[in-house]
Each structure stands twice: as C-alpha cells, then as structure tokens.
Amino acid sequence: MKFDRDQIAEMLQDSLPGPELFVVALTVSDAIRPKITVILDSEQGFGIDECAKVSRRLARRIDEAYGEEASYTLEVTSPGADQPFTDQRQYTRHVGRSLSVKLQDGTEKTGVMEAVEAEGIQLAEEIKEKNKKKVLPAVLVPFAEIKEARVVISFK
C-alpha cells in the first residue's frame, strides 16, 4: 500500500493537541511495510505522554482513511539531542546552552546562546587562545546566515 505524504501531513496537523507542538519532520517510506516517522518539538519541551497521544490520534485517522488492514509502522518522537535544529521555534528552549553553529559561508562558531530574537540568535562565541577559552561578547547571528545549529552535548 502506498501512503500519500500530503494526506498524512494533514492528518498529523489534525492530530496535534494544540499549537504548542509543531512538526519538525515527517517521512513516509515506500517499503513493503511502510514506515511513517513523525518528529515533533515544542518551545517548552514535552514528554512521552504527548507523543503517545499524537500517535494514537494519527493511527486512528490513518486507519479510517486507508482501512484497518493497512500495514504500516508509525513512530512519533522528539528530536534527539544531537539533531540539528530545523525550525526557528526550536531555539527558544535552548537559551543558555552551548550551540555549534555552521554558517552559510562555511565558518563555524561555538558558544552560549544568550537570547533568541525575531531575526536571529545572540551568541557569545567561545574561542581558544593559547590553551585558554575566551568568551567574546554576544553578537546577533541572523537566521538567514545559519546553515546548521545543534546543541553541544557536554558531560561535565
């Protein structure tokens, strides 16, 4: 059976409990037993209960549209800690954390994100200077210049 990604996306939007959750990614494979993978996020974070609720609601809608005998795997999850941000709304709950940012021109910056503004993020870049770390004053890094950003995971 072939699933229509656009139709699944509409069903997914109807399955969200409110505007606080948003879709980061939706993939629908064309395998013999298709796999539908949904990655959700929220500006405040969320738990497994919300994932389960969306999963049940979406499964019900898929079964209604494609029949209960349709064979598929459904996975509803949150982005992993090592996943790059794909939506500007993902930055908000990571204020105060260290980010690794790759810019469109190929340069990379690592530092603490001090704030999120409408046009970009305030990043206090950390640079190494003679075996010491130096923190530069925060500067605005426009979203348009960010190619990829992800949280730096540290085990201190």
From TrEMBL:
Cytoplasm as UniProt keyword: yes
Record-level GO cellular component terms: cytosol
Domain Ribosome maturation factor RimP C-terminal: start-end pairs: 87-155
SUPFAM superfamilies tied to this protein: YhbC-like, N-terminal domain
Chief localisation class: cytoplasm
Subcellular location: Cytoplasm
One Gene Ontology term from the biological process aspect of the record: translation
HAMAP family: RimP (MF_01077)
Function per UniProt: Required for maturation of 30S ribosomal subunits.
Name of the protein in question: Ribosome maturation factor RimP
Originating organism: Hymenobacter cellulosilyticus
Lineage of origin: Bacteria, Pseudomonadati, Bacteroidota, Cytophagia, Cytophagales
